[in-house]
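hey so i finally got around to running the thing on that chain from the lab meeting. sorry it took forever, my laptop kept dying and i had to restart like 3 times. anyway pasting the input first so we r on the same page abt which one it is
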Amino acid sequence: MNDTSAAITKMVDDRHRSMTPEQRWSAASSLFETARKIVESSLPSDLTMEQRRLAVIRRLYQNELPEVALVAHAKYYSATRVETATS
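ok and heres what got predicted. didnt touch it at all, straight out
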């Protein structure tokens, strides 16, 4: 579905083209961080960090990555946090 007029599409495209790579990166990062926070705010508060990470990544990437990759991501971060905490 695309309900955006051609004039608005052109305006947005022109704006993006005028941005430096750093500005585009910053804008995309900010949008992603906002989306992540919205998802996190909807999760139950009693989840472990690994469960929270898995829930967030499932919401954001469920149709783009296989389940095994989502689980590996959540477990990898948890493993690195344990190593860091014990080092």
